[in-house]
Amino acid sequence: MQLSIIIINYNTFILTCKCIESVLQKVTGVDYEIILVDNASSECDPQLFSNKFPTIKLVKSPVNTGFAGGNNLGITYALGEYVLLLNSDTELINNAAGICLEHSVKHPEAGMVTCHLEYPDGRIQYNCRRFRTIGWELLELVPLYRLLPKAKREMLMLHHYFDHQRFAKVDWVWGTFMMFPRKILAQLPGQKLAEDFFMYCEDVLWCWQFGRLGYEVHFLPEAKVMHVHKGSTSKEKLKRTTLTSIKNHAKFMKKFYPDFRWYIFAAIFYTKQYGALWMKAF
Questions:
Q1: Domains of the chain: which residue ranges?
Q2: CA 228 to each of CA 59, 115, 193: distance values in angstroms, whole numbers, following the listed order
Q3: CA torsion, points 118, 122, 123, 129, in degrees to nearest 10?
Q4: Angstrom distance (rounded) from CA 93 to CA 59
Q5: 242-253 average pLDDT score
Q6: Rounded to 5 degrees, what are φ and ψ at 210?
Q7: Distance (Å, whole) CA 132 – CA 189
Q8: Residue 115 and residue 36 in contact, taking contact as beta carbons nearer than 8 Å
Q9: What residues does 217 pair with on adjacent strands?
Q10: Is 137 in contact with 267 (CB distance < 8 Å)?
Q11: What pTM did the predictor assign?
């Protein structure tokens, strides 16, 4: 088995069905399996997925273990040499899984590979990021990056400064679409993806851990996926999840800066647009 595609469902039956259908329609030339982990949904009987898609592996979790826990549970059932974590609110536009798998096999230095993400209306989602270091924050705040040539500026800053139209080596990417060799897990604490965060910022932590092991994170613009974004989050929860995301990022930055530099970073961030929300995270 070359690839195990793991999808987490939590009360998103329609979106998840569309995601699975897109995988079945678009992925070619790959020996793969689909593992669907239902995270204790209350929307409907998860057995409906098996009825609709008899070839998938359905894993029913008795409790909601979050994004990290759900993916780790799915991985325990995986047979693939490579693993693809795929959000339930996505639809493959092309053979993105096959494209990324081919790249991963050819480039063993790439511990994590991701694709081009776009909204349903075709707008780009800026999923390529740099870690929020003191230097990055200062560059954006001043902003001295404008003095650099466009190409260098884009690669230095990434995020919305990068047009996402060419290959790039980045620090971290969204957990929406993450492909990696399963063997890397054996090098991680507990031999699994970190579960420090129930949801939000776990993708930052995972890429950071992969980087510390010497692996690179690659972005492939030719692999394309539509991402509803927040499709698995109700509107009334968006405000709470924004604060949770900021709070989790604060915890991550304490890992990144375990010394006095954390206070410098926090002071710089506080002067920026979301400074007030950041401080509430404490």
A1: 3-127+164-232, 234-282
A2: 24, 15, 25
A3: 20
A4: 26
A5: 77
A6: -60, -40
A7: 24
A8: no
A9: 112, 170
A10: no
A11: 0.89
How many whole angstroms separate alpha carbon 171 and alpha carbon 115? 14
Q: What is the pLDDT of residues 67-119, one digit of tens each?
A: 999 999 999 999 999 999 999 999 999 999 999 999 999 999 999 999 999 99
Q: Are strands 216-227 and 124-125 parallel, antiparallel or unpaired?
A: unpaired
Amino acid type, 130: R
- Residue by residue, DSSP assigns 102-167 as HHHHH-TTEEEEEEEEE-TTSPEE--EE----HHHHHHHHS-GGGGS-HHHHHHHH-GGGS-S-S-
Retrieve residue 221's tokens.
């613009």
Distance CA 140, CA 157 (A): 8
Closest CA to 86 of 169, 160, 24: 24
Pairing of strands 216-227, 110-118: parallel
Question: Residues 6 or more apart from 45 whose CB is under 8 A from it?
Answer: none
Sign for the CA dihedral angle at 199, 128, 253, 188 comes to: positive
Q: How confident is the model at residue 240 (pLDDT cuts 50, 70, 90)?
A: low
Q: How far apart are CA 30 and CA 14, in angstroms?
A: 25
CA distance 35 to 85: 10
Contact by Cβ (8 Å): 72, 51: no
Please write the tens of the pLDDT for every residue from 2-15: 999 999 999 999 99
Tell me how far CA of residue 212 lies from CA of 84, 184, 188, in angstroms. 21, 12, 10
* Whether the Cβ atoms of residue 151 and residue 178 lie closer than 8 Å to each other: no
Q: Does domain 3-127+164-232 have CATH number 3.90.550.10?
A: yes
Query: CA 151 to CA 78: how far, in whole Å?
Result: 40
